[in-house]
Hints:
The chain has helices at residues 2-14, 16-29, 32-36, 38-59, 62-85, 96-114, 122-150, 164-175, 188-238, 242-253. The protein is mostly helical.
Amino acid sequence: MRYKWLRSTRFLSRHRIEIIMWALVVEMLASPLADAHPRAGVLLGLAVLAIVVSAVDYMANPIIVRRIVLPLAAVWMITRIIEALGNGSKPYANLSPIAGLAFSCSVLWAVFDHFRVSSRNPQGAIAEAFITYLIIASAFSQVYWILNRFFDHAFNQVIPYTQKGTLLYFSMVTLTSVGYGGIVPVNPYVRNVAALESMSGIFFIAVVVARLVSSHKDKPAERGRLLVRQANESQRNSGSDCNCAMAFEELSSS
């Protein structure tokens, strides 16, 4: 029994970031439920909060997480509860997308600050990049909510302020440069934001690919430096050039 528990613990620890990624995907697929049922949205918000905090605790700068991300997460959760239980016609009941935008931007700040640290696990690096991709889409959807709320005819169709899932859909198809054309930005400011998001999506994919390639190339270089260091130590200990020559020969052949 204890052996099975240890195996399951090791599995969860080894595949933690992939589990978080799939949990976030499932939550985003279920996000339209929050539009129809605000109280269910509170539960989804709690789930998102737990998922994102678990992810940034693993893949982000811990100082930024403690000082900025967690306080903004608490504010965002409070605004979600007020939105679900308060009067929707009141301005204070519609602050969750604004607080959510601040929360998403703080998460991206913490992640990008930690992004320069190369991952030794390519599968984990891909999962981290995909989680970041989803957070970028969520942040832009909150920007669209603000623009749609304060600009008349922001899009070619009327999108109620309660339909956050629709704006998340538009953000995703814009970030991926799919652009089905069902929802089209009409306001010039919204158009510029959509164009910026599309450029950000292309740029992010290019950066992720370059990061994965560089992390793959770093392994032979690290192995070469290790062989040189072993050869130097062997030469100092034995006083012969045999081991050094063998090490350099192995280095040149790899």
